[in-house]
Amino acid sequence: MLRYAPQPKSNNLARYEAVNRRLSISFERDPAEHVEVMLSAGRWHMTAPRPRYTWLVLAGAIASGLAIGLLMELYRRFALPLVLDAQMIPTLSVVLFQFLPFVILIAALVLGRSRYLDRLRRQSFETQLETGQFIDTDVYDNGIETTSGDVTVWMPWGTVRDVVVSCGRIEVLGDAFIAYLPERAFPNKEAFHRASVLLADLRLEAQVVPLFEQEEERENALDQAA
C-alpha cells in the first residue's frame, strides 16, 4: 500500500499557501453523479443506530403473526358457521392461498410506485443542476476546500467524520458538507489510490489536535456552510 510520510501539522497554517497544498483536483460535475453523492450523504447522516433490543422486536413480530393466524382460525370456526353452511367454509390453508396472489400484487404495486417516484425525483433534481459546471478541490495540511461556481466550502480536518472510497470516488464526509473526488478526475488508478491514502492519513493526523481546537474549527466550518 502506498502511504505518505506524516508531516508536522499546525492549525495556524495559511489555507492558500502553495507550500501547504498537498493535492489539487478539478473536474466537470456530472449531474447524475452529483445527485447520487448528495443522496448518499443524506443516507449517511440519517442512518439510525442499530436497535438495542432486536430480539424483542423479532419476538413481537412473530407473536403478532401467530395472533393474527389464531384470530382468523377462530373467525372461520365460530363466526362463519353462523351465516354459512359448515361444508361451504374452506380450510384456513385454502383461504391463505387465495389471498396470497393479491398480497403479492399489492406489494409489487407499492414497491413499483415507490421506485418510480424515486426515479422521477432524481431526474427532476438532475435537471436543476447546471451542466458544464466545474468543481475545484484543494487539499491542504489543515483542511480541504471545494469550490463550485461562486460557492466555496472549507472543511478543517477536525470536522471530517470519515473518508470512504465508494462507487469509484473518494467521499470526504463532514459535519455539514460532503466533498468528493471521482476516479475519472485522476490520470490513473494509482494516482486515485494515492489520493485516497493521503486524505485518510490527513484525517487521522487531525485526531491528535486538542479537543478545544477541533471544536473551534468545527464552529468555523459550520458558520461558513450556513
Describe this structure in words.
The chain crosses the membrane at residues 53-72, 92-112. It comes from Rhizobium setariae. The chain folds into two domains: 21-30 and 133-225, PH-domain like (Roll), CATH 2.30.29.30; 54-127. It has helices spanning 31-45, 54-79, 92-127, 189-206, 211-225; strands at 21-28, 134-140, 143-148, 151-156, 160-166, 169-174, 178-182. α1 packs across α3 (92-127). It has 226 residues and is an alpha+beta fold. Residues 1-13 have low confidence and may be disordered. It is elongated, with a radius of gyration of 28 Å. A four-stranded antiparallel beta sheet has the order 1-2-3-4. It is built from five helices and seven strands.
Topology (SSEs and partners):
Layout: E1 21-28, H1 31-45, H2 54-79, H3 92-127, E2 134-140, E3 143-148, E4 151-156, E5 160-166, E6 169-174, E7 178-182, H4 189-206, H5 211-225
Helix pairs in contact: 1-3
Let me know the largest β-sheet: 4 strands, antiparallel
Please bin the fraction of helical residues: 40-55%
Detail the poorly predicted runs. Answer: 1-13
CATH homologous superfamily annotation of the largest domain: Pleckstrin-homology domain (PH domain)/Phosphotyrosine-binding domain (PTB)
Can you give me a brief rundown of this structure?
Keywords: Membrane, Transmembrane, Transmembrane helix. This protein has 226 residues and is of the alpha+beta class. Helices cover 49% and strands 20% of the residues.
